[in-house]
Amino acid sequence: MSHRFLPSISSLRALEALDRLGSASAVADEMSLTQGAVSRQLQGLEQHLGVELIQRDRKRLSIAPTAQDYVTEVRQALNQIAQASLRLQVAPVGGTLNLAILPTFGMRWLMPRLPEFARLYPEITINMATRLEAFNFAQEPFDAAIHFGVGDWPDTDNLLLRTERVLPVCAPSLIQAKTPQSPKDLLRLPLLHIQTRPNAWQDWLEQNGVSLSAPLPGTMYDQFSTITQAALHGLGVALIPDYLAEQDLATGRLVALHPQAIETKGAYYLVWPRTKSRDQSLMEFRHWLASKAQPEDDLPR
């Protein structure tokens, strides 16, 4: 890449800090420079790029409106450099695996199993970050992701971990007046929806012979942990995976409004970009996880 498009890191740090902190004096304190040195860094950056980046109002400096998008991208790039440097410094001899996980599935399904992997492969470090939205291997430094879907992500390979079977559940207090006798009766109750499964209720009702002529009303939640709490406190009926509901069903805190769990259209997968397929740490993790991905594998207690 041409040097003309690669300004110095120090000048980019000064630009990012000015946008974040709002004054040259604050930038000078953070970077351990004089205000004059900060000003020279910013002037040098403008000359290097041939673009006006800074608005100068008497002694006050601020980011020009036309440079805001550039500053945002610079901040992301600086953060990526810092994270890459950190990973390099702490990387063990056996390598690392940077994994994106779904928060609830990661906590309830993956975490109880990871101690075994740590015992078998103590030389491999797994770094994890939660992601509710779809992962982007091109823009984020992940080696793999555990996600829900139908296994059709482009330029990736995957390993099926677990299908999802869901049950409608609610607090006993919600149905004290009258217990629903059929799936259609659930339409009389407040329905709780989850953002990652916007069509879950529609699909479930149609699987049970209920035709819908209008969108289903109800409240929306972003995670299974919050929708489960809403159900426990009597706010409505939640359609949640059976493995998440089993403990609350066993203790009577929740009741099931259908006799059996029904398999959904999606499933949980380990997904990785094809460019990472030969990564040794990922290969070891895939091989181990495949032994845990059987449908009959019970949750550790």
UniProtKB/TrEMBL annotation:
One of its GO terms (molecular function) is sequence-specific DNA binding. Residues 7-64 form the HTH lysR-type domain. InterPro entries: LysR-type_TF_proteobact-type, LysR_HTH_N, LysR_subst-bd, WH-like_DNA-bd_sf, WH_DNA-bd_sf. GO terms for biological process: DNA-templated transcription. It comes from the Bacteria. Keywords: DNA-binding, Transcription, Transcription regulation. Belongs to the LysR transcriptional regulatory family. PANTHER family: GLYCINE CLEAVAGE SYSTEM TRANSCRIPTIONAL ACTIVATOR, HTH-TYPE TRANSCRIPTIONAL REGULATOR. This is Glycine cleavage system transcriptional activator. It comes from Falsiruegeria mediterranea M17. The lineage of its organism: Bacteria, Pseudomonadati, Pseudomonadota, Alphaproteobacteria, Rhodobacterales.
